[in-house]
Amino acid sequence: MIEPVVLESALDIGFKLVPTLTLAGMLILFLGVGYFFRVAAVDELWVAGRSIGSIENGMAIGANWMSAASYLGVAGLIATIGYFGLAYVVGWTTGYFILLIFMAAQFRRFGKYTAPDFVGDRFYSDWARGIAAFTTLVIAFVYAIGQASGMGLMSQYIFGLSYEVGVILLMVVTIGYVALSGMLGTTKNMAIQYIILIIAFTLGLYATGWAQGWSLAVPYLEAGPEVAEAASLEAQLVEPFAFTSYYGWIALTFSLIVGTCGLPHVLVRFYTVDNERTARWSTVWGLFFICLLYWGTATYAAFGGLLYADGPGGGSFMDMPGGDADSIVLLTAQLAELPEWLVGLVAAGAVAAALATTAGLFITASSAAAHDIYTNLYKEDATQREQMIVGRTTILGIGILTMLIGLNPPALIGELVAMSFAIAGSIFFPVFFLGLWWEKTTKEGAISGMLVGMAISFGAILNDTALPMYTGVEGAVIPELAVWLPGTASALIGVPVVFTVIIVVSVFTEEPPEDVKRLVRQCHSPEPMKKMDSAEDVAADGGTPADD
Amino acid sequence: MSDNTNQNSTDVAETDGGVKTEAYLDKEINLFKPATPFMRDNLRAMWGLFALWAIIVFGPTTAILFAPEFMTGTEVLGGFPLHFFITAVVTPLGALVLSAVYAFQRDRLDTKYGISHEDEEDAETGAVAADGGEQ
Q1: Which key words are in the record (chain B) (predicted)?
Q2: Could you tell me the CATH number of the domain that includes residue A243?
Q3: What is the pTM of this model?
Q4: Which of A23, A252, A348, B67 is the most exposed, having the fewest neighbouring CB atoms within 10 Å of its CB?
Q5: Do A298 and B113 touch (CB under 8 A)?
Q6: Is A244 on the interface with B (CB under 8 A)?
Q7: What distance in Å separates the CA atoms of residue B35 and residue A348, rounded to the nearest whole number?
């Protein structure tokens, strides 16, 4: 079902001066901003001194979110798997609502540094913290492979480099600037990255519509005839359950939604804002900024599909090779014969998208390693300098590992990212949700829940992707299992199972201590907290209001 | 529990809807049993919007099962099959609108119960927060 990325492609490969300068200028801008806002303190490295406002944080949420998978992958998925691909559009947008109503403000009130911080403190256990930190590293790693793959594809068009050299080059740049600038720098950068990527994406779409005479002002609403024409070439494009069953569609959407609510690098964006109200509104802004791009993905798929069928596809497009599918956004601009600088801008936007997300992931991974594993589990009195060293070493390590796997990625970009969502959904969502909304959740419940979640989500990925890829088995190891528990969508089964495990174990184990319950209650109090306060500070002082 | 001061402050807090932190620190957090009037109001909005959200997200695809002809056969806006258009454009828009509605609703609740995030921000952070942290 999942094919490795095929690297020959209809992309116009070769060195291009203007796109190269565009990308170089963009990277210099990012590094400059990163340098200007460089940080030395841990507070600033991880939560930007809690100083970010709602629109800026919304843009950062958008840039953090819209990776190569959103920018390149989703349109490619819709073009090759039709209506099933829309599950990605729905899953990756609507999940923010759940995050908003159930979690955003509560996490802001909790007010620590990282996702494992929440798990470790809420479940009063270093084991829980350690498992959460490990999961954070795995998620960052799986997620980042897709980004590295996108970077490699784009550098073929821009520099005319081979895919492999492109992956290495752009990953080195990413590692360099994340290590240099930390969270404050990356938040500033993310707002800029969002603006660049949304302009590049939208301009490419509008220009294609104009050049082909397909659309004028709102391509998302004007693409009807093109969708119909594409559907007449490839009926499967609009056939609801051609590539998967109803179950498969719902399972994927559900996994992406709960994954959204369980991703550590998304969560950390609520730690960086100044108060709970900003946490809420920045979620709304973030979703708006995200929708601007996602509304265009189906349009890109229709436009790109038609152009592809006219050109390299010879009358069809749904069987295009993986490398082409993953670059369909760029291919659309190229096949519409837009000027080279504009196509180059679209490619540069894709790199910005991949870079922004990878930066967010690496920051989260480095804080998990330095803050949660090194400082909290290994050396209580670690100095800030030591933490910075561990954090940066982690960025380097995970960056190199990502680069190596990215050289020969096991799946399409969108699918790789979906797997990290299934992991986040199965392991983190239940402990976050129950941790915030049911104070009697115990550490034993949380730990056993996370372990079961790991078994389910890792098992599903091993079954249908990782093992087949490295053992040469065709399809999945256990095909029946892959039907009900795909690696990209294991959370539909994973989440209810993990919820049940946590609740049952919690009922049969000793209740959490009173101070932990107070911590949970504090997360729900509507009374505003001081900017640098965490729920723990307030809950521990016997209930004196923060502003007394 | 028998602490007098604590009892009093809880009573005081309840009269304003129970928005003070100490009203929360002694009450169980349960998604289905709101402990204070504020939380009851908040949860009512949450559940209502959540139900709408579930319909918007999973409804269209489920409708294909029950009315395949209507969902896939109807064309809107010059060629979009209805199910394709709803899923690609309307569903994300619906989630966005619901999110904005919830955030507005929460702001209105804050006003109703006299909660202000702005005062505190001005008093304590001044210029830094006002310009979004730009330098």
Answers
A1: Membrane, Transmembrane, Transmembrane helix
A2: 1.20.1730.10
A3: 0.89
A4: B67
A5: no
A6: no
A7: 52
